[in-house]
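User: I'm preparing a small set of examples for a lab meeting where we compare how different chains pack in three dimensions. I only have the primary sequence for this one, and I'd like the structure in token form so I can line it up with the others. Please keep the answer compact; I'll paste it straight into my notes.
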Amino acid sequence: MIGNDLNHYQRLSSRRDFFTRAGSGLAGIALAHMLQTDGRAATTSGSDPLAPKPPHHTPTAKSIIWLFMEGGPSHIDLFDPKPKLVELQGQPLPESMRPKFTAMPGTSKNGMMPSKRSFKQYGQSGIWVSDWYPNIAKHVDDMTVIRSCWTDGINHLGSVTEMNSGSILSGRPSLGSWVNYGLGSANRNLPSFVVMLDDKDPIGGA
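Assistant: Understood. Below is the structure token output for the 206-residue chain.
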């Protein structure tokens, strides 16, 4: 005979209780791992993959700030004059450069369009700088301009990810990850590198 107490079903664990217990357990595992790796690093050299490693040469920089300005001016408007492009202004793309791929529909028959900027060489290095950067041109001997970059993709996402990770595929380790892997970390309690965003995420994510 069933009594008047209908609360015969008793919930074993609430959702809040489950996540509290699970979170505490994961935190304990993480703490144990950190204590173990710190102990190994103190006793056995090279056993900790994130322990500081000696670089190939004595560094002069203590930190790096990588400014990746997505959507900035084109290189052909800043430091990379293209005399041949000026010569071919308005003409169709030469056959030697085909097949032509473009992400913008209706532009496959557009003529060649050079930069409208004027360029001069500055400093002892003779780096070309456009008229958009008259003040930066005064400091070109303190700069390094790399002209050997190229990409496997033609759209924005592929170029953004390849610039920061070396691959057109998203989700690959970034430059900061590889530096941390190669040099280790001097402080396990602080991140070796951080990503600081502007007002919105870049294409492909932080």
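A couple of notes for your slides: Strands lie at 119-122, 127-130. The mean pLDDT is 79.

User: Perfect, thanks.
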